[in-house]
Amino acid sequence: xxxxxxxxxxxxxxxxxxxxxxxxxxxxxxxxxxxxxxxxxxxxxxxxxxxxxxxxxxxxxxxxxxxxxxxxxxxxxxxxxxxxxxxxxxxxxxxxxxxxxxxxxxxxxxxxxxxxxxxxxxxxxxxxxxxxxxxxxxxxxxxxxxxxxxxxxxxxxxxxxxxxxxxxxxxxxxxxxxxxxxxxxxxxxxxxxxxxxxxxxxxxxxxxxxxxxxxxxxxxxxxxxxxxxxxxxxxxxxxxxxxxxxxxxxxxxxxxxxxxxxxxxxxxxxxxxxxxxxxxxxxxxxxxxxxxxxxxxxxxxxxxxxxxxxxxxxxxxxxxxxxxxxxxxxxxxxxxxxxxxxxxxxxxxxxxxxxxxxxxxxxxxxxxxxxxxxxxxxxxxxxxxxxxxxxxxxxxxxxxxxxxxxxxxxxxxxxxxxxxxxxxxxxxxxxxxxxxxxxxxxxxxxxxxxxxxxxxxxxx
Length: 460
Ligand code: NAP
Prior knowledge:
The chain is α/β, with parallel strands linked by helices. Helix content is 43%, strand content 20%.
């Protein structure tokens, strides 16, 4: 039987191994998930909220242990791991409180207009939903699916990334520990090659995937073949535009955070810094200086800003992208090289300018702490550079000019625009992308409705 390895990216040490689930075990988990759906529906709003709050309390009580596990398993600085757990607890409580209102449907004021005595809509759960999830926020990515899905009355089965099996196992137990019916939310310990069989299983109604484009394409095409609902949260190369009227100190400070949060491995990290000519020298100098000052090291150390990349293959990808740009004439302003003989998959904060369309970095996502600097001749030029890619996840726009801000909000092609800030997800706001960054939304009212049947009701 194949195994999944939990390996500490800071040291390369193997922390734990887990056997893949056999076909029989997968069958049992799918049967249990299917059997849980009518129980979840029958439980009603108040009981589901009680159980969700109980799960939130358990996760909160486990905060230190879970945060340490995240950092050990994927290398995020410990304070950010704690933040991830706290945010997950908040989202669980948020959906416990708001799910009923989000799914209350509507009633026509004048049903006689459609020849009825009563007419309107209601939201029913779809059934069992498969979640294929990435390692970069190993608790949060899962909770932001699980909390609304369970509150809506769906059951969830999780196929987590193969390099975070400890997080996968923890999450597979959390909801039943809180009292949810057996099978309501479980983890399938399987590799990517077995996802197809689960999507095709008649007991599975829908699938959500957060991850890379190739994985999204594969899952969407299989789900398309069996006509099942899909939500895709894929990659991005988010623009961070800086105009001359912006507060350049604040912009540079936020730019560093926007690029390097999660060791630079977030889908919504700002990746391309597009700066108006009149602000270029001032912003670039401040930004480069701050990037160079970041502390790289053991992510369990409270003073570390940047830990290792989560996998050696992830680091190889970054090395190749930066080397390709360097060979084709880009200027490496900060970083760009590291001590290969040291333990761990570290890569230094890096700032690169002079990127041209023949470089891979121009249109590929850099999933590590590598910032690309672009100089724009005008607002229109900046917006054109921002929109030139086929990604459209988040974006940030820095300016103090109201007319510019309005124009940018309307013009940037992305799932979100943050003005004088950085893209962040909030349970209160929908989250998702356009173009090759995916489709569908998570979080907020829109997210919980994705895996519901919006049913029209008409009574004579
Ligand atoms: P990945 O390789 O696509 O892995 C994500 C998940 O998909 C894992 O569980 C993986 O399983 C599974 N998977 C991979 N190939 C598959 C296939 N052909 N069929 C079915 N499942 C498959 O992604 P990653 O490289 O770990 O994550 C980084 C990417 O995720 C980046 O592009 C990032 O921008 C994106 N991301 C997007 C969001 C968002 O909300 N938009 C959030 C976070 C990350 P295995 O681990 O077993 O291969």
